[in-house]
Specification:
Helix 1 packs antiparallel against helix 3, helix 2 crosses helix 3 and helix 2 packs across helix 5. The protein is mainly alpha-helical and 144 residues long. The protein is built from five helices and two strands. The chain has a single domain, classed as Orthogonal Bundle (Peroxidase, domain 1), CATH 1.10.520.30. The protein has a two-stranded antiparallel sheet. The longest helix has 28 residues.
Amino acid sequence: MAGLRFSIGVKIMLTENIDADINGYSSEMVDGLGNENLAEIEKALGVLTNDGVYGYYVYCKSKAKGKVSHSIFKEFIAGVVNRFNLVVNNRYEIKSQMAGIGDYDRYFKTLSRDIHKLLFFRDILEQILIYARYHAKAKKQDGA
């Protein structure tokens, strides 16, 4: 397992097994969301399934009221982009820890220009949300 450094200075660990990375992030996502995580995860998964990646992005942006610091935006958008951009290899990178909504708008517009990267990103998002839903259900049953 090798540590990789994104251009925004976030050090992450990627394994050779992307499924393990997705599982790890989905667990972190649930922990970062707080109490109402299951409902938000299910809504976001529904939007992604029905409306695609850009619809998902716009939905999360609206739920976060346009604030990058909002937990929904941090977990559903920024965290995924920062953690999995090296795997997706989008040409536009978020280069600042102080990235704003405009930076993420450009990221998703650039991503949509390459259908293979867009579909791969969608698959990653979908799997993250499915695993997160199971983590949230388990956490709820455990009473945590």
